[in-house]
Amino acid sequence: MTTLPPLPMTRPKLTALARQKLPCSPRTIPRSQLIKEKDDIDHYLEVNFKGLSKEEVAAYRNSYKKNICVDMLRDGYHKSFTELFALMEKWDALREAAKVRSLFWLQRPLEDQPDKLDHFYYYLTRAEAAERKEYFEEVYNNLYALACYFNNSEDKWVRNHFYEQCFKIAQLIKIDGGKKEAEAHAHMGLLFEEDGQLLEAAEHYEAFHQLTQGRIWKDETGRVLNLLACESLLRTYRLLSDKMLENKEYKQAIGILIKASEIAKEGNDKKMEEEASYYLGLAHLAAGEYETALAVLNTYGKISTDLDDDLSLGRAYEATAKVLQSQGQMAEAVKYLKKVVKIARNNFQSLDFVRASTMLGDIYNERGYYNKASEYFQQAYDTTAEITNIPLMDETKVHYGIAKAHQMMLTINSYIESADLTSLDYLLSWKESRSDIAPDPTIGGSRRSTMESLYQTSEFSEEDLSGFPDNQKK
After folding, report:
1. pTM assigned to the model
2. Cβ within 8 Å of residue 468, ≥6 positions away
3. Taking CA atoms, which of 122, 181, 298, 474 is between 20 and 30 Å from 422?
4. To which H or E segment does residue 446 belong?
5. What mean pLDDT do residues 6-34 have?
6. Where along the chain is composition biased (Polar residues) (predicted)?
7. Sign (positive/negative) of CA torsion 311, 314, 318, 320?
8. Contact 208, 232 (CB under 8 A)
9. CB atoms near residue 453 (< 10 Å)
10. pLDDT above 90: residue 459
């Protein structure tokens, strides 16, 4: 939000007099002077302020809002009065309609906010005066100042009103090469984007981008407008593609993300290009185009490496693992996920660590390596407990419990198959305590040779299986 300096205004006569009786006035006003009833005020003025003009009496009697409106009309600003009156009516209507369920009801009435009324008077009348002289750039600046002043959660609808006014006036400005028009398209794009109307937002952002191509224009904060247009378009295209992917409109989503990638390259910003490649890769994955997805994600990984961006590199590895998993290349997927776990641990990214550990646990559990699965599910569960993420903790707890059950199942089956007294004693002891059951060394040894024979045919390496002789590939 743009911070505006205090208004250096000279108030009209009625407004200046009325301002003195406001509760926020620095002067100490006798309590009796603030009495609202007409008869009491008339009597007080007659006794204490003989010789006051009719205007001065009205200034003290009327509300500050009414004095503002009267000054506008008396000074000839009829258009400003009409606009302010319409805004005040809408303000009251919104508060009334919202009742106690909305922020509008909690807001103070406009007549109780003299600073806002001052801004309305100051900028609306200046804009009207400039419009009479056809100084449209000055009209735009005054309306935009009002939009910036009301750029807050409570008054956003007022800001949007003046964004629309700025957009209309910007079409009339012909002396700046289209800069104001470009800015107005940006504001309208933001308005529609916040309202969830993404197609309309994209249209305005595309016009904003087209008008700023080849220009070195900057906004009031020094940001290059063309780069801002690229960022806005990328953000909107990504949101549109998300909706398309939800509706399984894969071709349309990929098409719009390809446009986003081209715009990112045009903007000559590696960070934007990196982001565009990531979402394009995910779209190809969702569409089942695995080879293309790997190629795009490989580009994303290279850019992340060039930028020395470990977090983005971790995202690249995780997305690549998902593609490989979809292709059935589990051993390769495991290698990438282990890299994700390492990066997440080194960068204290708890959620990334939990997600990668859970994916590894799922792969090992699905392939029958229950000890390994239990290890990864346990570290995922322990991490969620540390960060007190209750929903995620419950989810990982279930995964961990299933893997532990599978792990115990192998040992119990081994004891049952052995059918000797020692194994029977182990089983009876376990039934009494229902605690974790440790594998018998003899039984474990007899199974080790079986696991070693699997190394030759398993898609997992010996390193992946080492230390887990009690697991068996499905």
Report:
1. 0.75
2. 369, 371, 372, 451
3. 474
4. helix 441-454
5. 54
6. 447-459
7. positive
8. yes
9. 10
10. no
